[in-house]
Amino acid sequence: MKKSKQPKIFVLDTNVILHDYRSIHNFQENDIVIPIAVIEELDKFKKGNETLNFNAREFVREMDKITDNQLFDKGARIARGKGLIKIELGHPFSEQMAESFFDDTQDHRILATTQWIQEKNPDRVVALVTKDINLRMKAKALRIMAQDYLTDKVTEEKVENIHKEVKVLPEAPQDKIDKLFYGNGATLKDFKLKNALPNQLFKVDREGMHTVLVRYSAFTNTLVGIKKVKAYGIESRNDEQTFALDALLNPDIKLVSLTGTAGTGKTLLAKAVAGEADVPFFSVSGSSFIEMFVGVGAARVRDLFEQAKKDAPSIIFIDEIDAIGKSRAAGAMMGGNDEREQTLNQLLAEMDGFGTDIPVIVLAATNRPEILDQALMRPGRFDRQVLVDKPDFAGRVKILNVHMRNVKMDDDVEIEEIARLTAGLAGADLANVINEAALLAGRKSQKTVKQKDLFEAVERAIAGLAKKSRRINPKEKKIVAYHESGHALLAETTVGARKVSKVSIVPRGLAALGYTLNKPEEDKFMMQRHEMWAEVDVLLGGRAAEQVFIGEISTGAGNDLERATDIIKSMVQTYGMSDVAGLMVLEKSRHSFLGGGGQASREYSDKMAESMDEFIKSSLQNRYEIVVARLEEYREAIEEMVALLYKKENIEGSEVREIILNFEKANNIDSKITQDTSHIEDELKQDATMSPKKETNKTPVKEDREQEDEK
Hints:
It is a single chain. This protein is an alpha/beta fold and about 700 residues long. It has 5 domains: about 10-150, 5'-nuclease (Rossmann fold, 3-Layer(aba) Sandwich); about 160-225, Archaeosine Trna-guanine Transglycosylase, Chain: A, domain 4 (Roll), CATH 2.30.130; about 255-385, Rossmann fold (3-Layer(aba) Sandwich); about 395-460, Helicase, Ruva Protein, domain 3, CATH 1.10.8.60; about 475-585 and about 605-675, CATH 1.20.58.760. It has a 6-stranded mixed beta sheet with strand order 3-4-2-1-5-6.
């Protein structure tokens, strides 16, 4: 039967939404069906900080904005387009499906819904949109049209056909046309257009250059240029990422591995390729190759590469490649895994099977490069490793600004301050901060996101969700208040310590009854010795405050003591900052994965271990005595800080500094808050040998420098 000119019906799979939560806006002129199985599956992804978790949450919010009661019946209007969107409840398997597919899986439910829609609409084009190549093959076996989701991309042939049909944009100043050419977008007013249909195509001639194809996006209310692959949609933050982008454009480079901790943008870089390139993009997870039946993984690898070669030029992206690329030597020690090894062998064979004459690029991402098999990393394979690191201060500012574009911010927002507080957070974490701040503002019925909402979102990202319903008894509240005040005072009065941003006695997360949030004044990639001792002092400040003001210690300092011990141990074993081992490195780390620890090998004698233990023990005791003396000296300031915490539960770093400065002024004490570090080199030379004696471990303070100057 000949299909009518009615709008097409597109059934969207879960992975399309996880790839792009705005995907429904690319089908505004056609009807969209979301099977209820997709909504059910999205529920599994709503928690977490990865991009797919973010997309799952945002899509549900997009659906929640649709107030039309027809969403589950005839369908609701999609934005300003002609198409409708509908959520379709489940339907039983047809006899054909029941005989072909035995398992009642989410994928098969989506297929059943699509087949039912196709049978109910014989005069309309019905297509399943999915990024799952296996699901597309199953759909085609059932005579269901299926296609990949590639956002706004057009092939050369389509461009030629479209150019004959599209409307030419009216003449406009050259700078307006340049905006389109460079992909910055333009408004309808720029070209004196009163209106345009959603997704309507135009073309414009740029002086001395080729014709630019333009699409009107109803979602952003702008004219957007449709480009062929030239760049990949992201700005490189360092030399390694610049190399990665260049590598993707270099026909002689075929294999690139992206490494970095979770959330830094490895998958985003690959998605940027998919978002801008007009070539087929095959995205798979390493774990999807492994099945319980031997040979299935290898067959899937063969099918993937065969399809990529057929559709060349194309790009293959293997996420979490360590799932199949783990070292076979390590696997042999643990008993091995025949299916994984066969899959890896097939992957190696396929990578060797095409040369520079076949335009297929293979990208792989992992946050555990140390455990990859050496055969994968040898020259000619994934020998080009690109580290996608966590963003620096400038990078965080840019990332935050990107995620703020669709959120209305108050005039009091200082994004640089938020960037300083978020040192160490990855791009996915920063996206979550902005999203969380918007939710907080929405719950308060605010029209804009304020600075305090962003601060609260940062606290949630770092310390966890506030548990105001968790009631702690007055005795524990008193202990926590003195404990956190001790941390705060040492952080503000010790050279090299990170200054206080906020002190709280509101329980957060699973176990924390209170916390002190410190912020670095700048991005730091290494620590000097006096800064490490300062960190130890701050960690000991909580326990010391309990002893001085409560008279008895609690279990609350357990983690503080563990971290302080680890710092001193690393100074001895790794950094050569003591006389115990001199410049010897006593402990080497093996397989220290990005973002996690690894196994350590002990390479020293029992006598050395005994000396090291004695140094750590005596150093901790010496530091502790210095910290206790500092707290005794500032007793009144601590009491005032605790009283304010009791009253407000949360106090800002500026309030902590004001209390300390007022106390120092009233008692004629030279301020330790305003101290500089200009004489730190002299102190380090004088304190070159860090012996276990009390006086040699003392953290430099202002009085010490003045006495040295007098001498």
